[in-house]
Design brief:
Rossmann fold, UDP-galactose 4-epimerase, domain 1, 10 helices, 13 strands, binds NADP nicotinamide-adenine-dinucleotide phosphate, binds guanosine-5'-diphosphate-alpha-D-mannose
């Protein structure tokens, strides 16, 4: 019999890649979508007829209990979140409700309906914030620098706590930044690749950005969802850092993306204080040794391959 998985956040970047992976692995895939006045299924429209979409929201526990009762999944991937760091300063309470307490709601729903369900929590390298060690691994202490980071620390520890309190098969993936042509336009990688493609096409002349010195460990989302799945195939739940092990600055990102369209970023990028954050995470670089050895996971696309893929997809979309 086919395994059945529920994905919260199925309409997001990672949800769409994970749904593709699970379908390829022969799963029945249920996707939780929240009610909105317009459809938000652009990223999954190509597989929509192979998914079952159900209605629910991480702020409404009864909706989660009912979905689990009706669908009876054996695996739950909790990818839903208010995931944009900048917005977490303007909507800190909403961010806490969804990104922090939402995790408790889904864990409680699992405990009530079927404690045998295997659970994946989408934790984040933002939890390391003002980093205590370089590189960061599973033992690095957390020091979050945004309401989003604080909410993710809560989500991580409540996952660990429910594993230890109720013996749930609950794992936390501490994923470093991962990107793709499906990345939201507000995140810096996509903002830069889309911006460079628009300038190349003559649709704009400048791109306004914030801190060009921030450094991130950027990987490819399709590589990272393989790690999520691998965590739930193990007999024992655990926590894993998922990262490429390389770091690059926003400035380098600009250089590579603009070079890919034959332009010099210095002629077009303007630093705008509106995009500077109240508190910054200056440097992230992960050590995924545990995931390599225990999960057999490795990434296949590097930073340069990723940026080139994203620029090419943005040029292609604009041409169409
Ligand atoms: P994303 O593209 O922003 O997707 C977020 C998803 O959450 C969307 O499907 C969104 O639905 C859904 N959502 C938001 N609020 C909800 C609510 N109240 N109830 C139900 N669903 C809700 O994020 P992503 O990049 O795919 O990231 C997936 C997860 O990994 C997130 O938890 C993120 O914080 C975490 N993470 C991401 C990265 C990264 O670099 N991408 C790294 C570490 C951790 P709508 O479509 O309706 O808005
Ligand atoms: N978004 C954005 N826009 N970021 C900018 C800009 C800009 O115009 N200019 C500079 N940056 C810098 C930010 O200050 C930050 O240091 C870096 O670029 C990356 O910003 P984002 O792409 O917005 O990602 P993030 O690192 O804050 O958060 C992402 O990664 C986390 C994992 O570490 C999100 O996907 C989170 O959900 C995820 O948990």
């Amino acid at each position: 019999m086919a395994k059945r998985a529920l994905i919260t956040g199925v309409t997001g970047q990672d949800g769409s890649y994970l749904a593709e992976l699970l379908l390829a692995e022969g799963y029945e895939v249920i996707g939780l979508v929240r009610r909105s006045s317009t459809l938000t299924i652009e990223r999954i429209s190509h597989i929509q007829d192979r998914l079952t979409l159900v209605s629910g929201d991480l702020v409404d526990e009864v909706s989660l209990i009912n979905v689990l009762r009706d669908c009876r999944p054996s695996e739950v991937y909790n990818l839903a979140a208010q995931s944009f760091v900048q917005t977490s300063w303007t909507q800190p309470v909403l961010t806490g409700e969804v990104t922090a307490l939402g995790v408790t709601r889904i864990l409680d729903a699992i405990r009530i309906v079927d404690p045998e369900i295997r659970f994946y929590q989408a934790s984040s390298s933002e939890m390391f914030g003002r980093v205590r060690t370089v590189p960061q691994d599973e033992h690095t202490p957390f020091y979050p620098r945004s309401p989003y980071g604080v909410a993710k620390v809560y989500g991580h520890w409540i996952t660990v706590n429910y594993r230890e309190s109720y013996n749930l098969h609950a794992s936390s993936g501490i994923l470093f930044n991962h990107e793709s042509p499906r990345r939201g336009l507000e995140f810096v990688t996509r903002k830069v690749t889309h911006g460079a493609a628009r300038i190349k096409a003559g649709l704009a002349t400048e791109l306004r950005l914030g801190n060009l010195d921030a450094q991130r460990d950027w990987g490819y989302a399709a590589d990272y969802v393989r790690a999520m799945w691998a965590m739930l195939q193990r007999d024992t739940p655990d926590d894993f850092v998922i990262a490429t092990g390389e770091t690059h600055s926003v400035r380098e990102l600009c250089e590579v993306a603009f070079r890919a369209v034959g332009l010099d970023y210095e002629d077009h990028v303007v630093v705008d204080p509106a995009f500077i954050r109240p508190a910054e995470v200056d440097l992230l670089v992960g050590d995924a040794t545990k995931a390599h050895s225990v999960l057999g996971w490795k990434c296949e696309v590097d930073f340069y391959g990723l940026v080139e893929m994203m620029v090419a997809a943005d040029l292609d979309a604009l041409a169409r």
